[in-house]
Structure formats: C-alpha cells, structure tokens
Specification:
The chain is mainly α. It is built from 9 helices and 2 strands. A hairpin with a 4-residue loop joins strand 1 and strand 2. Helix 3 runs antiparallel to helix 4. The longest helix is centred in the middle third of the chain and has 28 residues.
Length: about 200
Amino acid sequence: MDPKTNSNGTPIDICGDLNQFFREVVGSVRQRRAYVTTSTAESYIAGLLADHAHAGEDFREFDKPLTIQLAQALNAVGTERFQRLRRVGDGVLYTTGFFGEYLESRGIDQSYFEELGARAYATAGRMLVLDKAEQNGLFVELADQFHMFVALVHDVAESLRVVAARTERALVQLYERWLNSGSEALAAALATHGLVPLRGNKMLQ
C-alpha cells in the first residue's frame, strides 16, 4: 500500500489527518501480525501515535524519572490524577514500542518499564465511573495486554521505517537492521514491498 493512500487507494492528507493515517497503518499491522484487540483499543493506539507525531521533536517523555512521574500521578487528585496516569501509560507504551532497542542499549529493563505503564493504565481505569464502562474496559485491556500492545507499536514502527525507505541505501540499512535483530515484523514489512530478506546469501530478493 502506498503510504499516501488508504487501503482503497484513496489519497490521504498525512499532514491534515494523522489519525486516519495511523488507523490505516495500525489496522494493517494488526491484521498482518494477527494481533487480537478491540476496535476501541486499536483506535486508541492510532490516536496515541498521531498525538506523538504531532508533538514532533518537542516531545520529551522522560524528562523526569518514570517512577517519579508515576508517584506524582498517584498523589494527584481528580481529573489531574487520571490524566497524569494516562500520560504515564501512553508514554511508556510509545517509548518502549518505538525505542525499545535504545532502552536496552542503555541497560534499562524494559519489562520494568512495562510493569509501571500497565499499573498506570490499570489505576486510571479504576478511576472511571460505572457509566463509562466502555472506557474502563479500554484501560483494563491496555493494562492486561500491555506487553502485546508494546509489540504492536513496535511492529508499526518497523512498518513505518520500511515505508520511509526511499533509497537503495535506506533499504540496505533496514536489511542490516533485520540481520541484527531477526525481527519478524521488519521481515513482514519488507515483504509487503516485494523484498524478501534471506540470511543464507545475505541478499534481498
């Protein structure tokens, strides 16, 4: 699929409708990789990615240590408490999904991050009143399946890297990335563009 068109071939204004763009990408990755999620969660993930794309280089997720952010969120009250908890969950999900390799290279325990993110979502979900059961269910799902959603966001990131590769050099770099990581998501993303990575002769077909 051309990154500037949707599944029906209709042009997408990426700058003007990032939500639609990410809904297309997340939906495609979810189907290709057989992730099981509710449509509500899928839409939430797409919106999260769109929000972070809008933030651009000004976005700084971990200006403060994550444990301090979570403690401040838990000590807040009312709407502020909910919003802080959700931001912690969102930040962990986005950062571990897109930059997991960087965290590992810094010696950061990703599973510990994921535990904190899941806790933030679970606590936020418990704050919702009964007449918001659908949202409550969303945050329960995000908390209970946090690791799976990190994997989904990671696979979206790999797919976007392939989409952004416009030169032969960029494709070679992605191939080298695949050789180092063995990422099934990256291999699948390359395959959607007619590129089948092979380890034996270290070439792209």
